[in-house]
Amino acid sequence: MGSQIWGAAGAGLLAGGALVVGAVIAWFVRVPTPVVTAVMAFGCGVLISALAFDLNEEAEDLGGFLPTMAGFLAGAVVYVTAIAAGAILAMLCDTMIPEAFRDTKAFTGLLAVLGFFTSFAVHALA
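The line above is the sequence of ZIP family zinc transporter; the predicted structure tokens follow.
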């Protein structure tokens, strides 16, 4: 039990440290706006994935990893409501992070889905 607590504390410190490092870099380095907005969209996908693991995990359990991700990405690319998970995520990102959408346009949703894909892949394959 004690080692789990220290592991969680270490993971939290690492994640928090990454935020501080990113803030320091952004303070001293001029990061181009398209890079900032692409990172925002990708991060949106990673954060939303934390909420959607329960939904996608069942699909992955029933159909496997590749069919689940293929359907999710297809939904984001074609915006078909029959493949709702990807389409809904792309729509949320297009409307919820206007700064990113203003610069990356249609790629905002796709970048967010790629963030989700990365996060879900780490979760599913770990």
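Note on the example: DSSP finds six helices and no strands in the chain. The two ends are 21 Å apart (CA to CA).
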